[in-house]
Design goal:
- By secondary structure, the protein is α+β, with helices and mostly antiparallel strands.
- It has a domain of 82 residues: MutS, DNA mismatch repair protein, Chain A, domain 3, CATH 1.10.1420.10.
- A four-stranded antiparallel β-sheet has the order 1-2-4-3.
- Helix 7 packs across helix 10.
- It starts with a helix and ends with a helix.
Length: 255
């Protein structure tokens, strides 16, 4: 339809103030999803031209009108569906976040039930929809296994992927979470090995993890200790085991 016709017939906007209220769209739009609202708007602006298509659509409308209970159940089921078109766009552009994926899962969950609801319908349009229906339950299962129910908004915050979904990620998390117990255990082992009871393993952002030995114990430092820094009253060292652990922990936190 041309712009003048759309305006004068007040199909989607009224002539009074250009708002939607009291337009034809406002009067006939009883949709319960954002996608349905856009679809009926497009139908008004791009009406069918072939008689057979018009008759098929009217048959579908008539069938829904005559099945009051089924129609109400369908409307209730569709209220759980988010804007799938918008979600699809964000995913295809790689700008979706984890909460979008959870919304996608919740939107796809009712699809098998909705498919069963329309199965008895006999109109051409509804039968065609049922024939080519895809419940996408494999996608539901994937998101359910992978993403937490209430994930963080930003990827950098973590708290997105469920434990058990990826073995490599589980190992990285274990390293990141169990750092304190490992350091305590290693510190105890190095004290027993060297006989230095005051030996401490510490961390700072400049030097990373290091073993600190005070001046009176310099003579007890093993040959395999690698000096990192010399202070007035102490020296800081590393070992291959501590260095390997540090690399794993820092890599885990970054990833």
């Amino acid at each position: 339809l041309d712009a003048a016709t759309i305006k004068n017939l007040e199909l989607v906007k009224n002539l009074r103030d250009g708002g939607r209220k009291d337009s034809l769209l406002d009067i006939i739009d009883f949709t319960v999803t954002s996608m349905g609202c856009r679809l009926i708007r497009n139908w008004l602006l791009q009406p069918l031209l072939r008689c057979v298509d018009i008759e098929n659509r009217l048959d579908a409308v008539s069938e829904f009108l005559s099945h009051t209970i089924e129609r109400k159940e369908l409307r209730e089921g569709m209220k759980e569906i988010f804007d799938l078109e918008r979600l699809k766009g964000k995913i295809s552009l790689a700008v979706a976040h984890a909460r979008d994926l959870v919304s996608l899962k919740k939107s796809l969950l009712p699809l098998p039930q909705i498919q069963n609801m329309i199965k008895p319908f006999s109109s051409t349009v509804i039968k065609k929809i049922h024939k080519f229906w895809d419940n996408a339950q494999d996608l539901v299962e994937l998101v359910d296994r992978a993403i937490l129910e209430e994930p963080a908004f930003l990827l950098t915050e973590g708290r997105i992927i469920k434990d058990g979904f990826n073995s490599e990620l589980d190992e990285l998390r274990k390293l990141s979470r169990s750092g304190k117990s490992f350091i305590t255990s290693l510190e105890k082992k190095e004290r027993e090995k060297t006989g230095i009871s005051s030996l401490k393993i510490r961390f700072n952002k400049v030097f990373g993890y290091y073993i600190e030995v005070t001046k009176p114990n310099f003579s007890l430092v093993p040959a395999d200790y690698i000096r990192k820094q010399t202070l007035v009253n102490s020296e800081r060292y590393s070992t291959p085991e501590l260095k390997e652990y540090e690399e794993k922990v820092l890599s885990a936190e970054e990833r």
